[in-house]
């Protein structure tokens, strides 16, 4: 509900039978920015709707997905969150990329 990300590799490596996660799926010293970002990308590409951290969001997402985007509740909430985040970024002086070209790093010309 607040935008926090819930992925196994960020959880402490303790044995927690309630979570359904193995300790080996949790945080360990080999994790780095790359593996964390890949996990976030994976979560965004294929959200786990069968064991969600936010049940209400999962239900809305499934309804949106199964209706082939005809149910607009999820889409509208996401749109409002994106606009709010853009406003926060503007206020903080952060330039958020909005096009594919802006997301890509341009190679430097050889000297």
Give a structural overview.
The protein is mainly alpha-helical and 111 residues long. It folds into two domains: 1-46, no CATH class; 50-110, no CATH class. Helix content is 43%, strand content 0%. The longest helix is centred in the last third of the chain and has 19 residues, at 73-91. The protein is extended and about 55 Å long. The mean pLDDT is 87.
List the helices and strands and how they pair.
Layout: H1 33-45, H2 55-66, H3 73-91, H4 100-103
Protein name: Cell division cycle 34 homolog (S. cerevisiae) b
InterPro entries: Ub_conjugating_enzyme (IPR050113), UBC (IPR000608), UBQ-conjugating_enzyme/RWD (IPR016135)
Organism: Petromyzon marinus
Percentage beta strand: under 5%
Biggest sheet features: none
H/E element sequence = HHHH
- Any idea how many domains? 2
| Total E-strand runs | 0
Average pLDDT metric: 87
Number of helices: 4
What is the overall silhouette?
A: extended
The computed structural class is mainly alpha
User: What is the CA-based Rg, rounded?
Assistant: 18 Å
Distance between the termini: 49 Å
The unreliable regions are none
**What percent of the residues sit in helical stretches (DSSP H or I)?**
40-55%
Short summary of the structure?
By secondary structure, the protein is mostly helical. The chain has helices spanning 33-45, 55-66, 73-91, 100-103. It folds into two domains: 1-46, no CATH class; 50-110, no CATH class.
What attributes characterize this protein structure?
4 helices; Cell division cycle 34 homolog (S. cerevisiae) b; UBQ-conjugating_enzyme/RWD; 111 residues; 2 domains; UBC; Ub_conjugating_enzyme; mainly alpha; 0% strand
